[in-house]
Amino acid sequence: MSELAIAAILAATILVASTISVEIGLSVALIELAAGVVVGNAFDLSVPDWLSFIGSFAGIVLTFLAGAEVDVPQFKREWRASLLLGGVSFAAPFVVVGLFAYYALDWNREQAEIAGIALSTTSLAVVYAVLVETGLNQTLIGKRLMSATFVTDFGTAAALSILFITPNLWIVPFVGASAVLILGLPRMAPDFFRRYGNRVIEPEIKLVFAALFLLMWLGDRANSHAVLPAFLLGLALSSHYAQHRTEQQRLRVVAFAFLTPFFFLKGGMNVSVGAVWANLGILALLSAGKMVPKLGGVYPLARRYTAPHAAFTTLLMSTGLTFGTISSLYGLNAGIIDRTQFSLLVSVVVLSAIVPTAIAQRFFQPHAATEQARDEAGAPMPAVPAEALTREVS
Amino acid sequence: MPFERILVAIDGSEPSDHAFTKAVELALATDGTLHALAVEGPLPAYAATIGEVDEVKREKDTFFSALCARARQQAEEADVPIEVELRPGHAAEVIIAVAAETNADLIVLGHRGHFLRDHLLGSTADRVAEHAGCPVMIVR
């Protein structure tokens, strides 16, 4: 099949995915992933090089956007609780899944590390959607959850960039360019955007893309990955975007219209339904490998910092989607994991986006009005024993 | 006097506009008060980016604030006392809950008539009519 024919099929698939998303109210990313699975398996389409390239860039753009969404002032206010919750939320499943994959599944060390990273993530967007929909994003519990999720994502980005590095001399320009961009862009952005912004040719988006491509190239030459600097660059520009929502909106339009659909399609097309079907037992064990340490590690801390809604917090911290897919695709592209391992990891990631969220919303969702009243009454979630808080609430 | 507290559900559709007009007429006839309720449906479930959620939320907020303002203006022009409320959630569940909270004597809502969806899942009007604790008027 010619590349143009494949492009036409994929463009039509992306269009259909968008309309289905609007009609049924499900995230377009999940539908694109599912569509990729269908297209990839039913038509036996292999991922062409151009799709792989766009998909890789889209993954970095997604990482940048995730960094740019962070509410830095809020994180500074809640850093202690967030570091503990988010740090454990990353470390516990990373260690457990990594050890399980290495010893029980006989994956090699790098494969086990990819598994650990992919299944330790927490989905910032899934958590955000639940909080915004209910108004809980305005409450202390919601703000703590978002800040903690950022820490978990940071752990993922750092692990991806650091664990698989095989240093050579290119590491010097890679680190140097990362530092210059992360420190320099926020300073030059206001002047640059003022002089060249608000034009249909979008120089400000091109500036971001040029920076990300540079990081990808240098990261590749340094045998590393641009995930961490891209995330930090987004984080560095988050305050600017918070003050200039239109610029952020334009960047989103470009990303969502052209880039991210190819990222999720590419992810879906690499999933082998046969491999998942043949390894349902391993799928279940990997799912447990993600959930059990999340529950065991996060719940005690959540009882301390987000009481009396520890179960809700724990379940939402157990979700995953974008960073899990990014990590798995990195492992596949770098030749670290094979297609079966990728299929299993992405399947667990997608399940973790749906199952914990549904349980949290159905059985444990706090009422925003009650939480706001609790915040206003000055009886939020201080760092005191959970029993005391439970008594206070009851 | 019957129908002193009328709850009318609004969603910006043509049947909903008809329902609102009928509710205003009814409130005038019974010297009653209106409680207009708009229910903001769910955001994209299991989103992959905050941007996707933010943009949908922004569109919904813009749409519903205009809808609520229009309802308030129409009622005021007809000299009918009105309270306008916007709540998130599942339409039928929220309408029934608000009717109970406000001790509504009557619920008025439009029927949009989604053929396939109605037959598969049932319409909001059907569900409200089945589960509400007060009379329900469905306007076509």
Question: How is this structure best described in words?
Answer:
Chain A is mainly α and 394 residues long. Chain A has helices spanning 3-24, 28-42, 49-68, 72-77, 79-104, 109-118, 124-134, 140-163, 171-196, 203-221, 227-243, 245-269, 273-278, 280-305, 310-317, 322-333, 339-363, 368-376, 386-393. The radius of gyration of chain A is 21 Å and the shape is globular. The N and C termini of chain A lie far apart (66 Å). The model of chain A is unreliable at 380-394 (pLDDT under 50). By secondary structure, chain B is of the alpha/beta class. Chain B has five helices and five strands. A five-stranded parallel beta sheet of chain B has the order 3-2-1-4-5, with helices on both faces. Chain B starts with a strand and ends with a strand. The model of chain B has no long low-confidence stretch (mean pLDDT 87). Classes of the chains: A mainly alpha (394), B alpha/beta (140). The A-B interface holds A 21, 25-30, 62, 65-66, 69, 123-126, 128-129, 132-135, 248-249, 252, 255-256, 260, 264, 321-322, 325, 353-354, 357 and B 41-55, 57, 88.
Beta strands of chain B, count: 5
| Rounded average pLDDT of chain B | 87
Largest sheet of chain A: none
Task: Outline the low-pLDDT stretches of chain A.
Answer: 380-394
What's the helix count of chain A? Answer: 19
User: Helix fraction of chain B?
Assistant: 40-55%
Compute the separation of the termini of chain B in Å.
Answer: 26 Å
The counted number of beta strands of chain A is: 0
The largest sheet of chain B is: 5 strands, parallel
